[in-house]
Design brief:
- The chain is of the alpha+beta class and 234 residues long.
- It has helices at residues 3-18, 22-29, 60-68, 90-93, 115-126, 152-168, 195-198, 203-219; strands at residues 51-57, 73-81, 101-108, 134-135, 138-139, 145-148, 178-179, 185-187.
- It has a domain at 36-198: 2-Layer Sandwich (Peptide Methionine Sulfoxide Reductase, Chain A), CATH 3.30.1060.
- The chain contains eight helices and eight strands.
- The strands form two sheets. It has a six-stranded mixed sheet. A two-stranded antiparallel sheet has the order 4-5.
- The radius of gyration is 17 Å and the shape is globular.
Amino acid sequence: MKPFALVAVLAVAAGVLAAGQSRSLFQARHEEPRLVPAPELDLPGAAAVTEVAVFAGGCFWGVQGVYQHTRGVISAVSGYAGGEQRTADYERVGTGTTGHAESVQVTFDPRLISYGRLLQIFFSVAHDPTQLNRQGPDAGPQYRSAIFPANAEQANVARAYIAQLNGAGVYPYPIVTTIEPGRTFYPAEKYHQDYMTRHPRDPYIMVNDLPKVADLKRLFPERYRSEPVLARGS
């Protein structure tokens, strides 16, 4: 749990619950979802059974939870990307000085879901790509919006998609998502894996992350899976 975020969430929750408005707390505290257009440029279906994509969009608990409920995803692992291996641990990353972002490595079957569709979900429900170095109650460069492409083809699709969405004026503000190639992903500590599934009544999860899964089900019903695919070894 994010210590400072927990205090903020509980303080807001106490006031809202006292007023008998628990539903409005959920609406006020998570990023506003929107169904953005599908990418005009996408990668063709591959013969490979698995491919990997890495996304950063605030606290990794919520991003992991969204992709664990996405059809075509084989696994989603919370971790860190953008910095060095020696600083890839929760306490150091939390200082905001390591270059890492809390990230999620998504292994997917390209025969069932494309990289572009994963991006569409990322920009629609997983986070708000117009917030600079923050998401919801969490602030700092470790919570930045970022894409860590596995290859040049993924990077090209991501760049074209951001240009497409900005050009269409989908959001009221410009997208600040960075594209950071050549970065290694490091899995997070075991206690961070499958956090949403294991702690569904955690106040942070209830306010900030469960609504994202509900948004996935509502906006992408054909992509939603009720049973999450859990991280290996957790």
